[in-house]
Amino acid sequence: MTDPHLFADSGGDLRGTVTYASLCAVLDHYRDSDWQADLVVVTGDLIQDDSPEAYEHFCRLLGALGLDVHRVPGNHDIRALMQAALAEPPFQYCASLQTGNWLITGIDSCVTGQAGGHLAAAELDRLDAVIAESDVPNVMVCLHHPPVPMGSKWLDTVGLDNGEEFLNRVTASGKVRLAIFGHVHQPYDADHGGTRIIGTPSTCRQFAQGSDDFAVDDNPPAYRRISLHADGSYNHELVWLPT
Ligand SMILES: [Fe+2]
What we know:
The chain has six helices and 15 strands. It has helices at about 20-30, 50-65, 80-85, 120-135, 155, 165-175, and strands spanning about 15, 15-20, 40, 70, 90-95, 95-100, 100-105, 140, 175-180, 190, 195-200, 205, 215, 220-230, 235-240.
């Protein structure tokens, strides 16, 4: 799941959607479903208002699932607050996890003070090293910013400015089957050079697809179920909450 944009005030809203309530609705939908996860990945923008209290809400709500929660920062996160508030298990920050034939690894695509993202050379090198040191054949990379254009003029000015380098590296690794991201508050799913690039809508307010200018739409909160199989194949399903 991604982009919950929580506030210290649990009544706080993002463009008319109360973000605490919509995250609760997503978690309730998951709990009430017959699909059970082994872990949760949250690809950034945990909070909206720069407050430690918003991270405390996140910690309490996600911690109640009883699952490991892997997170990468988004442009609305405050790294120091995020790391401090969620420093202990089950929370993981830009971490790597090897499970079965898969490595799941998170990278930091944020630039302090900017909405758009950039992968620093050191972060790209760290990704290369993590993949090279792993002896499993399949990798899923998690980051906040989309490594490909969305076809939305305003969103593409705040995307990842070196997405091509990211794609070149993951293609060269020969192991990265999936890269998942948030940020765009809308779905995306396409193959790029053998790597599936998947964006998931927010747990709160969604942005209009293909829009030249900033615009929201009325799509409901969402999350994605991803199943990673031992043979390197995978399934994923986008779940929109019923309206
Ligand atoms: Fe966001």
